[in-house]
Design goal:
This protein has four helices and no strands. The chain is an all-alpha fold and 71 residues long.
Length: 71
């Protein structure tokens, strides 16, 4: 486990061979949920936040829904 905190691994779901890439589904959902929480807490709409980040609003929405990868 190297230098990762143990809590990090407790949130990763076990890979299920019947569902491709399922190990990343939980991480993307949690990241998206947290991004939305912080965006709202700081009073930004998706439109305003996407402008600040210089990203398309639909990309931000996809991240918040756990459907897009962050790159």
């Amino acid at each position: 486990r190297g230098s990762f905190p143990i809590d990090f691994f407790s949130h990763i779901i076990i890979f299920n061979s019947t569902r491709k890439n399922s190990i990343f589904v939980d991480i993307k959902a949690k990241l998206g949920k947290r991004l939305k929480e912080l965006r709202i807490k700081n009073g930004f709409s998706q439109e305003k936040f996407s402008g600040i980040c210089e990203l398309d609003r639909t990309y931000i929405a996809g991240i918040e829904q756990g459907k897009r990868n962050v790159s």
